[in-house]
Design goal:
It is built from two helices and six strands, in the order H-E-E-H-E-E-E-E. With about 130 residues, it is α+β, with helices and mostly antiparallel strands. The protein has a single domain, classed as Trypsin Inhibitor V, Chain A. Strands 4-3-5-6 form a four-stranded mixed beta sheet. The protein has a two-stranded antiparallel ribbon with strand order 1-2. The longest helix has 18 residues. It is globular.
Length: about 130
C-alpha cells in the first residue's frame, strides 16, 4: 500500500473511532428513590430528633424540582394540585420576609422575572 493509501486508511480509521465515541449519552436512571429530591408535602413521623419533630415526604409527595423554570402562577397551580403552597423568599435577587413557623405544605422558592429559579426548601421555620 502506498503512503497516500496508508494515510487515507489511518484517517478513515480515526474518523470511524471518533464517530463511534460520539454515541448518545443515554444513561439509564438508577432504580430507587432520589434522596436529593425536595418533596412536598411532608408529614410528621411522630419522632423527634434533638427535640425537633421529624418530617418525611407524604405518600404521593411530588418532586418540587419540576417547578423550576415554570412561571410563578403555573408553579403555584402545580403545587396546589399536590396540596402545597408556594412562598417567594427571594424575588429578582431581593430577599423577602417569610413566615417563621413550620408548615410542611409550604415550598419556599426564588424567582427571577416571574419564573421559579430555585427551590429553597419545604416546611420553613427558624
Amino acid at each position: 500500500m502506498g503512503q497516500g493509501r496508508t494515510t487515507a486508511a489511518v484517517a478513515a480509521a480515526c474518523a470511524l473511532l471518533l464517530l463511534a465515541g460520539c454515541g448518545g449519552d443515554e444513561r439509564e436512571r438508577a432504580a430507587g428513590t432520589d434522596l436529593t429530591a425536595i418533596r412536598c408535602p411532608l408529614v410528621a413521623t411522630g419522632e423527634e430528633v434533638g427535640g425537633v419533630p421529624r418530617y418525611e415526604p407524604a405518600a404521593g409527595a411530588f418532586d418540587t424540582s419540576e417547578l423550576i423554570g415554570a412561571r410563578f402562577d403555573d408553579a403555584r397551580a402545580t403545587a396546589a394540585d399536590h396540596g402545597c403552597e408556594l412562598v417567594v423568599s427571594m424575588r429578582d435577587g431581593e430577599g423577602l420576609p417569610v413566615p417563621a413557623d413550620v408548615d410542611p405544605r409550604r415550598v419556599y422558592v426564588y424567582t427571577e422575572d416571574g419564573v421559579v429559579t430555585e427551590i429553597e426548601g419545604v416546611g420553613g421555620g427558624l
